[in-house]
User: Which sequence fits this backbone?
């Protein structure tokens, strides 16, 4: 594949994140002013939905996880999701379809920028009859929710909790304006 082709990253989480590690059931119940345990499973599901919504709105992964990031060709570019907190290795399929680790001297990762980016210098040829010939092993996602995203998640949990009936006049898929304001600075690509 030509080095002129656009690089597309395809993330694959290799570990799963438990949503209550990011926003606890106790915190959500305190926000909702719920003192009973009757609706714990519902509130837990609302936490998951709120965090998924924020993740989709921002392009940022919530919950630190190991991930494999795949690309079809070499090209320096920004990651379309994040945050990338660590890059462990870059591997590729060489012209004989053998997996080889790229020496760290052949790439530079700027993980402190938003969005994070990676640049390759003098990359070797990759096997041309294969999709995802390049694999970047990385740690991706927030291990702790930034305060604005945490507050946005709590607002969404409250919104979903109050508007869970089909007869509600509110549209459940409408996101409260305050949530938009809280998550906008975290959008990777507006």
Assistant:
């Amino acid at each position: 594949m030509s080095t002129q082709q656009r690089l597309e990253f395809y993330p694959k989480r290799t570990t799963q994140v438990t949503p209550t590690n990011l926003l606890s059931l106790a915190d959500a119940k305190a926000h909702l002013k719920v003192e009973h345990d009757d609706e714990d499973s519902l509130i837990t599901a609302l936490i998951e939905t709120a965090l998924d919504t924020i993740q989709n709105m921002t392009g940022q992964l919530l919950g630190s996880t190991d991930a494999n990031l795949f690309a079809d060709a070499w090209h320096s570019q920004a990651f379309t999701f994040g945050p990338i907190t660590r890059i462990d290795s870059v591997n590729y399929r060489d012209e004989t379809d053998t997996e080889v680790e790229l020496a760290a001297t052949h790439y530079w990762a700027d993980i402190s920028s938003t969005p994070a980016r990676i640049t390759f210098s003098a990359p070797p040829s990759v096997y041309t009859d294969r999709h995802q010939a390049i694999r970047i092993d990385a740690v991706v996602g927030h291990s702790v929710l930034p305060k604005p995203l945490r507050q946005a998640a709590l607002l969404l949990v409250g919104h979903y909790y109050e508007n869970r009936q089909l007869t509600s006049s509110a549209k459940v898929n409408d996101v409260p304006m305050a949530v938009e304001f809280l998550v906008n600075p975290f959008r990777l690509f507006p």
Summary: The radius of gyration is 20 Å.
